[in-house]
Please model this.
Amino acid sequence: MEQETSYDDKLWFNHKGCDGKHFLIGNPHTFHGRMWAWCPVKQRSFFVSKDEILESSEQTKYWVKGFLSGNQPSPPKNENQDVDYTSDEYKLWKENIREFEQSGIWDIEQGM
Model:
């Protein structure tokens, strides 16, 4: 039995790997920044990062911005489990957050 996938048609985007409109449907809970999407042509869901979105509706732009803001990894903590806003680790984390907001990809090699 085939399951119907529901989506909001205002949350459309063009994907760089497939023609036509695709639709955001949620959080796949895989990696920081990955979003769950639907391809009506292939009739299947898939995971997508911000840098794979070519063109989109205004609603999609704001949805992605909110999603990535809420999906940011926590800042690094010191030995007292406090955030040291003057530490080199925190400064590196802030740089990585700026990149994450642009691409939707969190570089796990950075270790934070």
Q: What stands out?
A: Strands lie at 12-15, 18-26, 35-39, 44-48, 53-56. The chain has a mean pLDDT of 91.
